[in-house]
Design brief:
The N and C termini lie far apart (38 Å). Helix 1 runs antiparallel to helix 2 and helix 2 packs antiparallel against helix 4. The longest helix is centred in the middle third of the chain and has 30 residues. It is built from six helices and no strands. The chain has one domain. By secondary structure, it is an all-alpha fold.
């Protein structure tokens, strides 16, 4: 998702950092939906009424990591080092994506939150 949005925006003449910002934002929302439906579906299913809280936490954690991380990495890889746009973004996705998964596991979709919710029922 992020690479496609970045490529389309860059081709349309949008500055690479602005394109990175919008591409990352689209990817954050897209990834949340996939995590809700697939990665942590058993945790999300146990508390469907808390999806807005999970979205806010996911956006906070992933927004900090992805937006700041991608913008800094792209500014360095493309702006300073002169690297190719898409390859630089791919490297940024890999680095930030790993950190995002850990943040999702430990902060957004915590197993302890689900276990606590089950005990109160």
């Amino acid at each position: 998702m992020q690479l496609c949005v970045l490529a389309v925006l860059a081709r349309a003449g949008v500055d690479y950092l602005a394109a990175t910002f919008f591409a990352v934002e689209c990817a954050i929302l897209h990834n949340f939906l996939w995590h809700e439906r697939w990665t942590w579906r058993e945790r999300a299913r146990s508390e469907p009424h808390r999806w807005l809280i999970r979205l806010a936490k996911f956006h906070l954690a992933n927004g900090v990591i992805s937006l700041i991380g991608n913008l800094l990495l792209m500014a360095w890889l493309v702006g300073v080092r002169g690297g190719p746009l898409v390859l630089s973004n791919l490297l940024s996705i890999v680095l930030c994506g790993t950190a995002n998964f850990v943040a999702g596991e430990l902060f957004v979709f915590r197993a302890s939150d689900v276990a606590g919710a089950r005990k109160t029922r």
